[in-house]
């Protein structure tokens, strides 16, 4: 998965005249990080997959089949992953503070989808939050909001 992101970096280049990446690139980065949460425990619960699709569909205003295809692509490239740092570098460059917060909240939503937050899931979300410089208060707020959202389902 990270190899695919690296390929996107190579295609786009480091030119300073490029202000924003293509929206599909950013969607793939989000999908990849969310897929990593869903599979970090080496099991993909159907509820996690459904939440992953739903979160991407709502956040990026995608059709269900588009979001599903994005999830499948992210899951299909998971074994190519090399480093979270590459993803989070792009998140730091391209996402504003609100989008970083929403990404972490979405990661919590995926982790909570099966009713249990596994230690690996929490560790991964903490690492991403740290790497995107999300303050601890917003990290805990994102978790609390995701829990409330899960209760409303």
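Sequence proposed for the structure above (153 residues):
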């Amino acid at each position: 998965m990270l190899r695919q992101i690296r390929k996107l970096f190579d295609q786009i280049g480091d030119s300073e005249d490029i202000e924003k990446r293509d929206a599909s690139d950013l969607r793939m980065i989000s999908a990849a990080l969310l897929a990593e949460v869903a599979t970090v425990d080496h099991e993909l619960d159907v509820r996690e997959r459904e939440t992953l699709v739903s979160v991407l569909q709502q956040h990026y205003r995608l059709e269900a089949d588009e979001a599903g295809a994005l999830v499948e692509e992210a899951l299909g490239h998971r074994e190519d992953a090399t480093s979270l740092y590459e993803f989070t570098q792009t998140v730091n460059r391209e996402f504003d503070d609100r989008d970083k917060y929403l990404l972490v909240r979405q990661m919590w939503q995926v982790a909570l989808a099966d009713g249990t937050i596994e230690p690996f899931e929490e560790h991964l979300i903490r690492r991403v939050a740290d790497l995107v410089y999300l303050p601890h208060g917003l990290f805990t707020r994102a978790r609390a909001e995701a829990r409330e959202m899960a209760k409303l389902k």
